[in-house]
C-alpha cells in the first residue's frame, strides 16, 4: 500500500484552474492577485532552515518513514543478536542503538515543532483574514439592509412588522 502524497508547505499553486480573467469583477481579480502575491511573499520570506525543516516534517509524517525505521532498527536488532549469518554482532547490548534512537527522536521532535509553529502562524493569518472578511461582509450587508429598507419605504411597504426584519 503506497503512501498518500505528502502535503507541501504553503503551496501557491491553485487546486483548480483559475476562471477566465474577463469573467471576474475588477475587485475579485484584484483580491485574487493580492492573495497570490501574499503567498509568493510568504514563500520568499521563509528562511532556508524553515523550508528544510518543513520538507523533513513532510517526509517523517509518511508511513514509508515508519516502514523504513522498522526495517532499519529490526535489521540492527537481528544483526546485533547474531541472527544474521556471516555478520558479527556490533552492538550486543544495544547501547549504540538506544543512543542513535534517542538523538534521532530529539531531532525529529524539533522538526515537528518547527512545522507546528509554521502551521500555527499560517492559521493565525487565515483567522485574521477570515475576521476581516466577516467584518467587511457584515458592513456590506448592513448597507444593503439600509438600501432595501429605503426602497421598501419608497414603495410603501411596511417592513417593521416583520419580526425577523426588525431584528436586523
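Sequence proposed for the structure above (168 residues):
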Amino acid at each position: 500500500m503506497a503512501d498518500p502524497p505528502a502535503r507541501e508547505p504553503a503551496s501557491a499553486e491553485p487546486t483548480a484552474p483559475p476562471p477566465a480573467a474577463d469573467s471576474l469583477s475588477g475587485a475579485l481579480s484584484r483580491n485574487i492577485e493580492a492573495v497570490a502575491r501574499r503567498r509568493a511573499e510568504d514563500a520568499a520570506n521563509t528562511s532556508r532552515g524553515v523550508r528544510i525543516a518543513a520538507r523533513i516534517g513532510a517526509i517523517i509524517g509518511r508511513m514509508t518513514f515508519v516502514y523504513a525505521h522498522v526495517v532499519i532498527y529490526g535489521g540492527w536488532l537481528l544483526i546485533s543478536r547474531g541472527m544474521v549469518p556471516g555478520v558479527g554482532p556490533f552492538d550486543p547490548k544495544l547501547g549504540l542503538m538506544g543512543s542513535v534512537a534517542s538523538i534521532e527522536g530529539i531531532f525529529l521532535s524539533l522538526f515537528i515543532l518547527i512545522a507546528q509553529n509554521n502551521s500555527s502562524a499560517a492559521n493565525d493569518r487565515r483567522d485574521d483574514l477570515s475576521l476581516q472578511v466577516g467584518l467587511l461582509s457584515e458592513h456590506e450587508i448592513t448597507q444593503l439592509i439600509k438600501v432595501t429598507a429605503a426602497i421598501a419605504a419608497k414603495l410603501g411597504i411596511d417592513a417593521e412588522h416583520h419580526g425577523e426584519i426588525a431584528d436586523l
